[in-house]
Design brief:
The complex is a heterodimer of chains A (about 180) and B (about 725). Chain A is α/β, with parallel strands linked by helices. Helix content of chain A is about 35%, strand content about 30%. Classes of the chains: A alpha/beta (about 180), B alpha/beta (about 725). Chains A and B meet through helix 4, helix 5, strand 9 and strand 10 of A and helix 2, helix 8, helix 10, helix 11 and helix 12 of B. Strand 9 of chain A pairs antiparallel with strand 9 (about 270-275) of chain B.
Chain lengths: ~180, ~725
Amino acid sequence: MTKENELSDLFAQKARSVSAYVADAADMDAALDYAASLCAGMREQGIVAAPDLTDKEFRALEKKCATLGIQCIRAGLRDHPGGVEVGLTRAEAGIAETGTLVLDSLDEDTRLSTMLCDTHVCVLKKADITAKGEDLEPQLAERMKKGPGYTAFITGASRTADIERVLALGVHGPLELHILLLGK
Amino acid sequence: MQSAETLRGYQRELDEALNDEFLRAALDAFAKAYPVSRARAFEGLDADALVRDVARIKDQAAARRHELLETFTERAREAGVTVHFAHDAAAARTIIRDIARDTGSKKIIKSKSMTAEEIHLNQALEEDGARVAETDLGEWIIQLRREGPSHMVMPAIHLSRFQVGGLFEKVTGREQDPEIEKLVKVARHELRRKFMEADMGVSGANFAIAETGTIGLVTNEGNGRMVTTLPRVHVALFGLDKLLPSMDDALKVLKVLPRNATGQIMTSYVTWITGAGPCAAAKSGTKDVHFVILDNGRDDLARDPVFSQVLRCVRCGACANVCPVYRLVGGHRMGHIYIGAIGLILTYFFSGSDKARNLVQNCINCGACKEVCAGGIDLPRLIQEIRARMQEGENRALPGLLLARVMRDRTLFHKLLRTARWAQKPVKGKRGFLRHLPMIFAQDPQFRPLPAIAEKSFRQMWPDLDAKEPATPQSDTARSEKARIGLFAGCVQDFVYPEQLLAATDLCRDGQVAVSFPMDQSCCGLPLTMMGEKAAARDVARQNILAFDALDLDRVVTLCASCASHLKHAYPELMQGDKEMEDKARRFADKVTDFSSFARDVLALRPGQFAGCADKAAYHAPCHLCRGLGVRDAPRELIKTAGLEYAPSPDEEVCCGFGGTFSMKFPHVSAELLHMKLDNVERTGARLLLTDCPGCVMQLRGGLEARGSSIRVMHVAEALAMNKKPGGGS
């Protein structure tokens, strides 16, 4: 087993242990399919928010959504106070030992799509997974030096144990987190 | 929030908590679950080494705080943040109130911040006409109930789903199903609207990173992200103690914080915010970001040689999670704003000695918090130091004053004890229970009978014993000796349980160990320290060190875990600065050995020397042995060596409730701890209960006597002596 596969296996195992769903995606197109059909299964005329796709990827998503009878948006998340069904984003890194996604989410719509959605689908390249949090230190420190920044570590879905210490998911943020691992 | 002004009033508050069935069940379940999940979270890691990292990082940051503050402020300003410095709580309230006024913020949402609780921020903002909503589920619940948090991480742990359901019915005007999943959805729905409407968001910060001007927020619910994203104004309020030099330091602390707080490897969200980012709700398109950095006594703390380690606290709440007293009475009785052991200390510094006076008495000194602290803070010792400081500044309580006076004069003290033996005669029970020492000046609440003073103390027996030192077969005695030891008796064994010392002397002599008993020894001084009588504690320490120093000894052996831990850890500290005594104290402390370790390692007792009677024996681990000295295996191995069947029981290392003076001040808490301990022991079906501390023996025996139980409590040394084969065995 290659080092990369070992790390992605550990990442998947740790992410699942905090109730994340983890699946492989051969390429970005497969990820778009996943997000669109997930949304279609949740509600008629549901919404997929995907602010950080390239123009080409977004057009491809639009096409898929049209056939499924759902919408997709890439801006103006604040106009949806009731939230959206699916938020589709990309992680810049993953931490295997904790199953953590690292998202540079300075863009407000990117950030809101990870907060206001019922299900957050996040794409992570296997090659971007590191073993430990400390490995990312130089990268993070560099990023923070560049002026305004909002970097999120996301580990599992939004959770609380504030009532009788019983774990409940989705108190404020997503009820579910789906991670798509991209690459061989 | 603890509010009673007198100790009596505080005791009544504690009684109420003790009788709150839901609270008791909730905290009990938590106390059982937490150690398991914590251990799992640290699996494969060296937890102690990680804690040492946190201690080092935080100590260095505290020492460099002014420089870090300067750098942090500069970097944050460069990135578009307005940075404010608040000298005290009032200043911080004014700053934040003015930000709200200047920005026209009427609707304010908050994510959880203990610092905001510390400065009573909500009240100040509401008085100024703003509407403030907490968005952390637990904080929202207690805000609606108008009460303070009962735990730093789980603020509503004292409430049941039914209470929350009833509360939500009032808030929504609709009937609510008391099912937790559904109640959580109510909060999601109700609060979502508030997020969208809010003008200003107030958060705390877990880290403030100087090199980049970044703040870090560690959360689970995701409300912290929404508070810092949706409104057009963001105010982050945090203490000076949150400053760290670099991202690297923050990541190291983050390795410990969630694991120690909730047994999570990582929380759901960790958010790193640098500067003022884009915000569509702001006219300028950029968020208005303010950092308010609070001193409120932290700078003074950093300068204090004893208390500076308080600033290592990362607010994980673990000290409450493992506190046996917290487990019984909950956070509203164990802190003013901050909860648990650290809460007792921070109340003194942040809210003043009036608020802390009763609280700091409510530490049983079991050391469970110290062992679990994310920053390795010596919490029990600092609580004792606060007692000492309060004593210095005020009229001293009479029991402490009397005790200090008497304990300084060993002859007087011992004479009093012998007199007390006569005074107790008419009321002594059939089985010899009366009251204990050295707290003869305190009122005993008598929830369990206490032993009588022995007819003849060990020190009275010693001259005869010493003369009977058995002649060894070899002509050269010195060569055949395994070791030369001095016995340190401690008050309770000397005057109440001399038979425990006789058993130890017997075993030592069988094992070719020469025993001496310096007559000038006195009380170890721990009760004085516990009452804040530091000067007297220093005097008796000096006396004891000198009593042993003259002899050429390999070890100082004691059968009392509390004495042992005090002699070993406190003496070198007490003698610090005393040129003549410093070295002597260190040498003395190095030689101090608890009896079980000595019996296993030096006497090297073997099963062949004991007749197996196969009785089942449960074990109670004295706090000051298992945590104070880190001795865990030796006594349990000796139980088997003695031919007994060791019967493990749950919570073996949880305090029996004695705690010296604690059982006098808080008898109901002490009785409840004892009750839980004995229930666990009785369920094992053991006929013997062994332990390593005469204080524990006294508490446990009294409790079993009150129950009419036939379980016999013995010191490990007694069990060994009882099962010893005649002639020494093979």
